[in-house]
């Protein structure tokens, strides 16, 4: 953790609102993931935070990448642009997955040049890929239970288990190669059983595909969902890793290629926001602080990500329950209705930690307030 005195110094130097990215915390999360899941290749899900320096640090650590749009693809591509064409192609084939199951045709045409791995989950997409990206490799996105995840994804994505092998065979008949299966158990999954169920469903589909004569699959993509430790109710990652390792060893052949697409787990711990109190009012006996960052900006996760970020003061002193509001004129712009804060004055700073994922990534310019300035520490 960056010392509080350093955060205050950065805020004085750069002004607020400030979004501080701690690259030591990013590397630490990446190495923790690798240490506990050594069989699994890490494809960072760029959507969690697409800051080019985050991508750069993970690139240097040896990560691979999950992208879902051409701009995200380009953020990763910047890092390999200088390589000779042949190495570049190999790198993309080995280290990028385009994991948006539905892709516009012009995107497919652009992607086809790089022959990446792409996901699909329906019949329409097979025929689009055949026509517009015939050189891509395929992974079938499977619908799996998302029980208890903070952000549910299974109602929008994934082929039902009962139709999975039909789709794999249809892609095969269309002249495409399905390399394996991917799933997503839902973001911030603290119910570890989701992974167990998803791995068992996937193993059954591998078996059914073999039984029906399709033997080309050797890739297992266990997606994202790995929970950030926002608080101590989230069990340690090593416990989840143990569950996953046991199931993979039990259900799949030794030589299967396993990859994962963590977004939040890597990005959340590396982001800290610092904002300033710009106004103060007492409403119905409760102190309300107005700060210069809110849910249209760094705290966008409060709305889009169903996430809560405790707001903390640098100042010490007796606390009371307060409201914290964002700067815009929208009544939705509420960071928190119940925050324990000491008595603050206009100009005092507040901060939130573990706010690196799905925060700055979905900040807007609403009401004329631009997103927070980004600064990099320990890069
Ligand atoms: C968003 C997303 C991820 C990352 O999910 P986290 O819960 O942040 O780990 C991974 N894969 C796909 C396909 C996604 O859409």
Plain-language structure description:
α3 (52-61) links the parallel β2 and β3 (64-67). The strands form two sheets. Strands 1, 10, 11, 12, 13, 14, 15 and 16 form an eight-stranded mixed β-sheet that branches. The protein has an eight-stranded parallel β-barrel with strand order 2-3-4-5-6-7-8-9, surrounded by seven helices. It is α/β, with parallel strands linked by helices. The two termini are 14 Å apart. It folds into two domains: 4-19 and 270-377, Lyase, Ornithine Decarboxylase, Chain A, domain 1, CATH 2.40.37.10; 23-268, TIM Barrel. The mean pLDDT is 97. α8 (161-173) crosses α9 and α9 (193-211) packs parallel to α10. It has twelve helices and 16 strands. The site of pyridoxal-5'-phosphate has 16 residues, from α11. Pyridoxal-5'-phosphate is lined by residues 45, 47-48, 66, 99, 184, 187, 223-226, 261-265.
Keywords:
alpha/beta; Lyase, Ornithine Decarboxylase, Chain A, domain 1; TIM Barrel; 2 domains; eight-stranded mixed β-sheet; eight-stranded parallel β-barrel; 12 helices; binds pyridoxal-5'-phosphate
Structural class: alpha/beta
Bound ligands, each once? pyridoxal-5'-phosphate
Beta content: 15-25%
CATH overall fold name of the largest domain: TIM Barrel
- Domain module tally: 2
Low-confidence stretches: none
Oligomer: single chain
CATH class of the largest domain: Alpha Beta
Order of helices and strands: HEHEHEHHEHEHEHEHEHEHEEHEEEEE
The radius of gyration computed from the alpha-carbon positions, rounded to a whole number of angstroms, is: 22 Å
Helix percentage? 25-40%
Instruction: Tell me the distance between the termini.
Output: 14 Å
In the CATH hierarchy, the architecture of the largest domain is: Alpha-Beta Barrel
Helix segment count? Answer: 12
Largest sheet: 8 strands, mixed
Calculate the mean pLDDT score and round it: 97
